[in-house]
Amino acid sequence: xxxxxxxxxxxxxxxxxxxxxxxxxxxxxxxxxxxxxxxxxxxxxxxxxxxxxxxxxxxxxxxxxxxxxxxxxxxxxxxxxxxxxxxxxxxxxxxxxxxxxxxxxxxxxxxxxxxxxxxxxxxxxxxxxxxxxxxxxxxxxxxxxxxxxxxxxxxxxxxxxxxxxxxxxxxxxxxxxxxxxxxxxxxxxxxxxxxxxxxxxxxxxxxxxxxxxxxxxxxxxxxxxxxxxxxxxxxxxxxxxxxxxxxxxxxxxxxxxxxxxxxxxxxxxxxxxxxxx
Length: 277
Ligand SMILES: Cc1cc2nc3c(=O)[nH]c(=O)nc-3n(C[C@H](O)[C@H](O)[C@H](O)COP(=O)(O)OP(=O)(O)OC[C@H]3O[C@@H](n4cnc5c(N)ncnc54)[C@H](O)[C@@H]3O)c2cc1C
Ligand code: FES
Known about the structure:
This protein has 277 residues and is an alpha/beta fold. The chain has ten helices and 17 strands.
């Protein structure tokens, strides 16, 4: 069993979740993920690693409460235990020496882009980080990200912090700041990944997206996380989760993501009912 040392809502619907898992903390790399099960009957869900401390043997993720399993996780208190915390899984994000790297994070990806930005900076890159949210009250970890970035850019759709607008404004924002990225790395929800890839494609900026399909085993056996990249079948859990965003078949990806929506409603309803007692 794995003991939870922290589980708190840091902004509405997003939780910081820290678990004692010394073996994972010792070997995890930026871009890896873990597979978590909230209880013995629970399904296995993947969560990206957002930070770790090999000294205390702890690993931190940021999760968004969207359905049954994340609702169960959101009810756990520090000191509680979970039966599964498997990892580190997936290939690590490439953090070599590229020059100027734009790290983009939204939603849970504001957390998981952090170790990537940190490693890129340690390797001598000029790191520009851009975080985006609907409103300023949904932003977090700004100080942590500023500490590993040469520049931290903020975009909010309602203009309550940083530049008002949408992720589509990346090219204009960078032009104003005199920045031309040698690589763009994006972490967060699917729409953010897809939209950034669409915006950077005509500019020819290589864009790496951290894909988040439905997964079961996370080790390449079940085939559920299949996606098409440059016309070839890939499995996000073992071939990724990072891929070139310009080579992904986004239409197929979005269609596959909806496959289990009807089935997901029931566990969510059951879990919401329980949360009222
Ligand atoms: C490699 C990887 C890393 C991930 N990292 C994180 C992370 O760090 N933090 C985090 O909050 N989530 C992350 N996700 C997504 C997370 O695994 C799902 O949100 C989770 O499985 C949902 O489980 P659930 O039972 O709570 O919701 P479900 O009941 O399974 O789903 C509820 C709703 O969310 C949608 N949904 C399901 N899976 C996903 C998904 N992968 N992405 C977006 N929407 C989804 C469903 O279509 C449904 O509409 C990651 C996914 C992958 C593959
Ligand atoms: S999750 Fe089963 S093959 Fe990737």
